[in-house]
Amino acid sequence: MRRTILLLSALAFCACVAVQFNDPDPGRWIAFYTAAAVVCGLEVLGMRRPILPWGLLGVSIIWSVVLGVGLDVAALHRGFDDEVIRELGGLVLVAGAMGGLLVTRRPIDMGRGAP
Hints:
Blueprint: H1 2-18, H2 26-44, H3 51-69, H4 73-78, H5 83-103
Helix pairs in contact: 1-2, 2-5, 3-5
């Protein structure tokens, strides 16, 4: 079940990459969603990279705080018509996926390596 969810997450992040090409700032979002897709894909294949999900989780949290500091009441009323609100939504999705990935990980058996 975990592998299925990770595979679906990887595919969803690939879809997020596809819709970024008409974004005002596509480069950083394409890189960000691609990194999330790669982390989920590596986990599905059993090729764990312990630092990658932690790194994306940290970047998501810090970036969310930076964007959130600039929010005003008017932006909150505009909701998803506001670019910053949509960007915060993407950051929350990646943070949730990386957090879920980390919480559901089983410890690696030191004698056998990754399962």
